[in-house]
Specification:
The complex is a heterodimer of chains A (about 425) and B (about 160). Chain A is mostly helical. Chain A has one domain: Na+/H+ antiporter like fold (Up-down Bundle), CATH 1.20.1530. Chain A has 19 helices and no strands. In chain A, helix 2 runs parallel beside helix 13, helix 5 packs parallel to helix 12 and helix 6 runs antiparallel to helix 14. The longest helix of chain A has about 35 residues. Chain A is globular. Chain B is α+β, with helices and mostly antiparallel strands and about 160 residues long. Helices cover about 20% and strands about 35% of the residues of chain B. In chain B, strands 1-2-3-4-5-6-7-8 form an 8-stranded antiparallel beta barrel. In chain B, strand 6 and strand 7 form a beta hairpin. The longest helix of chain B has 22 residues. Classes of the chains: A mainly alpha (about 425), B alpha+beta (about 160). At the A-B interface, helix 6, helix 7, helix 14 and helix 17 of A face helix 1 and strand 2 of B.
């Protein structure tokens, strides 16, 4: 049995610290989630464990971390469902060629740069328990991920959702996320088959095929039933909500048992949900608050407890860390910017898009935790990648303000609205 | 648009294929990370001044955290001694970074400890064969040991 008092103290401390740091970050014009991520790191060995090891030992004794981890995993399972739920594949069609080219390049360019960096890092930061292909693919995937929810938050905070740049960024990030998770699923299969451990490869592939068929042809119909019920009554009963959560959890367990990871199942459950705007908003309202306020900070804290900046010791290790950040920014920001420019966007718009796509946020932490769990990255490399995630997310808002200032966005939005009004008036029947 | 797509997507894809092919030749350091059970004649130190160092040691006596060729080795003794080391090919060397504690007996647990070992593969199992010594203490002879790595714990069992 867990020591309940310890667990409750941990939850209280984590929530309080994460809210406090989130408010401080908001004052620095940063998204709240950035502060929550930093709060998690601060509670780990990088800060609290370093300056007050006794307090850290009292708050987070190693024996208690299993329970904290379990709670945080439940949180991130539901959160991944919400991320999948918020994805809107139709958004991509609206922007046509620009979105297709930009989203594909914003995946392949950082992926290639990540794999290139793996050539240098594999003999220096990995070991022979991981094959080069698994390592390189993971580095590529970790470099190419975009924080869809953080990006949506930044756009909404800056009132950019209705601008061309904002909707283009959302469309590209949605494609990036789905592609990133498909690539990660493949990597998990490659790495686990390299270890020849757990579920055999044939069983994973056959099971995955059967699972996808069941999800798209069976479970999706059930989920449409929820939407129909919502449209009839304007709300969902408690039983229906409970059943939906059970579907999410079962889907997560299925992918875990197939030798993938819990998160793939919950993300897929979100992706196949009906996308009616009001219905999606209703589900988000029901599940978002508890997940974001209570459970996600626990996930950040657990990530922080696994991250030790002290592992990046000595000039050589910091050079590796610098190289990782440089590669991540060059591949993602540079790749997206050049692609958007090639597709006809202005340099300012292309730069803004590249900056937005470069935010990795929570999605990066999720992918890194999966990598550490399956043993494809070492603890020191994990810590370096966490630093990269923080730096690339932190730089988004100031860089965006520099490239695409708020006053310019306001001007453009006003022009756009005026243009739309004029067009509507011209077409009005006499 | 087609030309842009071919250049911006096709070239990186070809590059990726080249990288994967080039990387197949790379060799990473041997994996020694994990928990190790030690077999050694610690009785050699039992009645010596340094006996305290291993008196409270429990299995798995070594816990190794590895990042490439860099190692952090934690001894599962009362003092939770931490050693920093490297692995080059099959040879492992580690020691405590602290300078010798002055004013304390040269054979106390606060003195620098060193480990040298060779990694071997015995079937599926990886083993370490080497010696553990107190660098400043002549009274305590190096202790030879053999360590066997525990199988990695499955996530479900944690």
């Amino acid at each position: 049995m867990p020591n309940l008092a310890t667990l409750i103290i941990q939850i209280g401390v984590v929530i309080a610290v994460s809210r406090l740091v989130a408010v401080l970050f908001q004052k620095m014009q940063q998204p709240k989630v950035m502060g929550e991520m930093c709060a998690g790191i601060m509670l780990g060995p990088s800060l609290l464990g370093w300056i007050a090891p006794h307090v850290s030992g009292f708050l987070f004794p190693p024996a208690s971390l299993g329970y904290l981890n379990a709670l945080s995993q439940v949180g991130v399972v539901i959160y991944m469902f919400l991320v999948g739920l918020a994805l809107e594949p139709k958004a991509l069609r609206k922007h046509g060629h620009t979105a297709v080219l930009t989203s594909h390049v914003s995946i392949i360019a950082p992926f290639m740069f990540g794999a290139l960096l793996a050539l240098y890092l594999y003999p220096r930061l990995s070991d022979d328990s991981v094959g080069f292909i698994g390592f390189a693919l993971f580095m590529g995937a970790a470099m190419s991920i975009t924080a869809f929810p953080v990006l949506a938050r930044i756009l909404s905070d800056r009132d950019m959702m209705r601008t061309r740049l904002g909707s283009l960024a959302i469309a590209c990030a949605a494609v990036d996320d789905v592609t990133g998770w498909c690539i990660l699923a493949y990597i998990v299969i490659v790495v686990r088959s390299y270890h020849q451990a757990g579920t055999p490869l044939w069983a994973t592939l056959a099971g995955l095929g059967a699972f996808l068929i069941a999800m798209f042809y069976g479970v999706q119909r059930l989920l449409h039933g929820f939407e129909t019920a919502f449209k009839m009554r304007g709300r969902l009963s408690e039983n229906a909500m409970a059943l939906m959560v059970v579907v999410i959890l079962l889907s997560a367990v299925a992918t875990e048992r197939l030798g993938l990871h819990l998160l793939f199942g919950s993300f897929l459950a979100g992706v196949i949900m009906p996308k009616d705007g009001k219905f999606v908003r209703y589900i988000l309202d029901k599940l978002e608050t508890t997940t974001i306020v209570v459970l996600l900070p626990l996930y950040f804290a657990f990530t922080g407890l696994r991250t030790s900046v002290q592992m990046i010791q000595g000039g050589r290790m910091w050079i590796f860390c610098g190289l990782i950040i440089l590669t991540a920014v060059t591949g993602k920001l540079g790749g997206s910017m050049i692609a958007a420019r090639a597709a006809g966007a202005s340099w300012r718009e292309a730069g803004g898009l590249g900056t937005l796509m470069n935010a990795r946020g929570l999605m990066e932490l999720v992918i890194l935790n999966v990598g550490l769990d399956i043993g494809v990255i070492t603890p020191a490399l994990y810590s370096m990648m966490v630093v990269m995630a923080l730096v690339t997310t932190f730089m988004t808002t100031p860089l965006l303000e520099w490239i695409y200032p708020l006053r310019l966005i306001k001007q453009e939005t006003e022009h756009e609205i005026a243009g739309r009004d004029a067009a509507e008036a011209a077409y009005e029947p006499a | 648009m087609i030309t842009a797509y071919a250049c911006l997507v096709g070239i990186p894809l070809l590059g990726l294929i080249g990288i994967v092919r080039a990387g197949r030749r790379l060799v990473a350091p041997l994996s020694v990370g994990g928990n190790w059970n030690i077999e050694a004649d610690f009785a050699l130190w039992a009645d010596k001044p340094c006996g305290d160092l291993l008196a409270g040691a429990r299995q798995p006596a070594l816990s190794i955290s590895q990042s490439g060729d860099r190692l952090v080795i934690a001894l599962n003794n009362r003092q939770a001694t931490e050693l920093i080391g490297t692995i080059r090919a099959t040879f492992l060397r580690a020691g405590s970074e602290d300078p010798p504690a002055s004013g304390i007996d040269n054979c106390s647990a606060a003195q620098p400890i060193g480990v040298t070992a060779t990694v071997k593969n015995q079937g599926e199992q990886r083993t370490l064969t080497g010696t553990l010594r107190l660098n400043t203490c002549e009274a305590c002879p190096p202790v030879a040991f053999r360590a066997v790595r525990q199988p990695a714990q499955k996530k479900d069992d944690e």
